[in-house]
Amino acid sequence: MDSKRSGxxxxxxxxxxxxxxxLSLVHSGIAQASLPQGRSTVAGSAVRAETEFIRFVRAxxxxxxxxxxxxxxxxxNTLAASPGTGTRADKPVIAATAAGxxxxxxxxxxxxxxxxxxxxxxxxxEMPDQRIAWSFPDLGVVISPFVESGIVPAGGKDYxxxxxxxxxxxxDDAAMATLRGELANRIxxxxxxxxxYCENDGPRSSCMSxxxxxxRVLFPGKYSDYPVLPRDFWRAGTxxxxxxxxxxxxxxxxxxxxxxxARLQRIASLTLPENLREDLEELVYSMGxxxxxxxxxxxxxxxxxxxxxxxxxxxxxxxxIQRRKL
Length: 326
Description:
Elements: H1 16-23, H2 45-60, E1 95-96, E2 107-113, E3 119-126, E4 132-136, E5 140-144, E6 149-154, E7 157-167, H3 173-192, H4 210-218, H5 244-251, H6 260-269, H7 274-286, H8 293-297
Antiparallel strand pairs: 1-7, 2-3, 2-7, 3-4, 4-5, 6-7
Helix pairs in contact: 6-7
């Protein structure tokens, strides 16, 4: 889970009054989504309030970084993963707007409002029965009902959750079949052990962040439970840790491209939920115009980044280091 470190977070200063007006539209409050119950949704006037709240968050939050695209015309998005040995940038991005059949293993992004009103991004893995597995604050690693919008009570506190989108993590069918076949065995030991949640997740940690949990499921280590990331997952938003935005850039093939123009062309060619498209565009504009694995290794100057009009500059990751925090 990331807040200000990942660029997705937003503080409470200056927004309390507006949020109060938005949330006042909800007459009966946001629907409860306690773990023993089924999927939780918001109905009636709460839907309108939720929509306005999400729009407000997007309008006031800091820029969300984007990914890289190659200087060649990317293929159009389709509903089936492309076979072959090409890079992610040569293959479609298959996204979802809710839990669904045949989506086991999908990585889902949620907006989470903590009890102190801090907004953060939470990620999890969809299970075959359409529940969500994640490492959640005050709960640790759990498998719970999928929350489209609602409240998850944990540790005597209420966490408001809104689903954003889901992404198929591997374009090719063989990799997805392997993930789905091993999904329960990868997750159940941590859930049964009640592995606690933490933000400071490193190689020697006995706890897991939400991102650390997802990376462990997708890229299990051979000699420990610490993930072994693929070589093309080269970008880290900070010098010491990966972020949920780095994962988003990787999953959508942006890290395989060389220029901002190529990345934007790829985004335009893909069939994506609108909020995912907006997030990727802002992430791309926050990156260096020519940021690649080579420039990251060389700790290229940050003044390569052109600023999108009206958007504050975001920090660009420096040289990645091995086994950084999750």
